[in-house]
Design goal:
Layout (H helix, E strand, L loop, with lengths): L8 H25 L10 H24 L1 H33 L6 H13 L6 H11 L2 H6 L2 H28 L1
Helix pairs in contact: 1-2, 1-3, 2-3, 4-7, 5-7
Length: 176
């Protein structure tokens, strides 16, 4: 197994290009997961076709990397693909931040979640139904992509909604 130790400038450009395009492809694939979530910021066209476009870009990236196999050899191809996939997947969260999270004001998500939940579903749901509705509004995978201050803000709002709904359901059962 031969490892090429002399990296040419075009190979450095190649890894940067492949990493950025893998990030965009991963981000597009994530957009498809947001298609049926009610409150997540999204562009409908990207959400609808994001998985197809993202998968096509990922396949093209792997094909493009395989073109340079004769220069990179086996070990460097594995290293390049690991960097491309690892860093690209990590950078996809920053794409999400740049596109959708930049306009956040103080307690914007907390107010938005509570207002949407109480306007559309009210206090009449039980604890299990509340959890299902909250998971369809904002799923956990998306919350984990956000910055820490937004994660804590959203989790606090979801816990508050859940506890109030549970309290209301408990009071309703007690009256029966």
């Amino acid at each position: 197994m031969y490892v090429n130790t002399e990296l040419e400038p075009h190979l450095i450009f190649l890894i940067i290009f492949l990493t950025l395009s893998w990030s965009a492809a991963t981000w597009l694939s994530l957009q498809n997961k947001k298609l049926h979530c009610e409150l997540l910021p999204q562009y409908h066209t990207l959400s609808k076709y994001g998985l197809i476009i993202g998968t096509a870009i990922m396949i093209l990236n792997l094909w493009f990397l395989s073109i340079f196999y004769h220069e990179l050899m086996f070990a460097m191809t594995i290293i390049f693909s690991s960097i491309m996939i690892g860093m690209g997947t990590y950078l996809a969260r920053y794409f999400e931040w740049v596109v959708f999270v930049q306009d956040n004001k103080n307690n914007n998500w907390e107010n938005k979640l509570k207002l949407y939940f109480y306007d559309n579903y009210g206090n009449g749901l039980g604890p299990r139904s509340t959890e299902k509705i909250l998971n369809s509004m904002i799923p956990n995978w998306w919350i984990k992509l956000l910055p820490n201050h937004l994660q804590s803000q959203i989790n606090k709002a979801l816990a508050d909604i859940s506890s109030k709904s549970e309290k209301y359901a408990f009071n309703r059962e007690k009256k029966r």
